[in-house]
From TrEMBL:
The keyword Transcription applies. Residues 56-75 bind DNA. Pfam families: TetR_C_43 (PF21597), TetR_N (PF00440). It comes from Streptomyces carminius. Transmembrane segments: none annotated. GO terms for molecular function: DNA-binding transcription factor activity; transcription cis-regulatory region binding. The keyword Transcription regulation applies. Residues 1-13 have a biased composition (Gly residues). This is TetR family transcriptional regulator. Keywords: DNA-binding, Transcription, Transcription regulation.
Length: 210
């Protein structure tokens, strides 16, 4: 009489080594693709800083160490690439907030460091402001995305610094970000203007002195 439950060929719950190996290969390929895309976005951001958003795609490809076709495979149009770079930089800035709170000696130190990163983002997005005012529908949601991702991070940093007694309470993240943004206007066109110094004075003014 045959035994119930099936043979080594496997019952319904069996998973063979080949399936597991294939799964690992797929996950590895996905991780590699993600890293390659991250490298492309980092290269594009660096080229945009140096040469503006109209820089030749071949310059981005050369910096990333890939062929031009690889870039077009990920980003069929320049607008697709610009949007991806913008979102990538916003995400990096957003993710930095909690990381800085965990690693900096005080919440105020985390706030100062995060504002420095925010200023870097604002000052170095050469040509992006003009592009965002174009008729391309893909750019319409970027400002809302920027606000939705970064304002809560700034709010959290401000709340932590206020709770620790290092700064005055009551300042909203959007207010501070707008103030910083206004101080960064013109920084890219006037080499005599030091936006980082002016923003530093603003953030110094948040400190409690009593």
């Amino acid at each position: 009489m045959p035994r119930s439950g099936g043979s080594d060929g496997g019952g319904s719950g069996a998973v063979n080594d080949g399936d597991e190996g294939a799964g690992r290969v797929v996950r590895s390929e996905r991780a590699d693709a993600r890293r390659n895309k991250e490298a492309l976005l980092g290269a594009a951001a660096a080229v945009f800083v140096a040469s503006g958003v109209e820089a030749p795609v071949r310059d981005i490809a050369a910096r990333a160490g890939v062929g031009v076709g690889t870039i077009y495979r990920h980003f069929p149009t320049r607008a697709d690439l610009i949007i991806a770079v913008y979102r990538h930089q916003v995400e990096a800035c957003a993710e930095a907030g909690p990381a800085l709170l965990a690693s900096c000696p005080t919440p105020y130190a985390a706030l100062r460091r995060w504002i420095d990163l925010f200023v870097d983002f604002l000052v170095t997005k050469h040509g992006l402001a003009a592009v965002l005012q174009s008729d391309n529908a893909g750019f319409d949601t970027l400002h809302a995305y920027f606000i939705d991702r970064l304002v809560p991070v700034c709010d959290r940093l401000l709340a932590a610094a206020a709770d620790s007694g290092e700064i005055h309470s009551g300042l909203a993240g959007l207010e501070l970000m707008r103030g910083v943004g206004n101080l960064c206007i013109g920084a890219g066109s006037d080499p005599r203007y030091d936006a980082r110094r002016m923003v530093g004075l603003l953030v110094d003014g948040l400190r409690r002195t009593d």
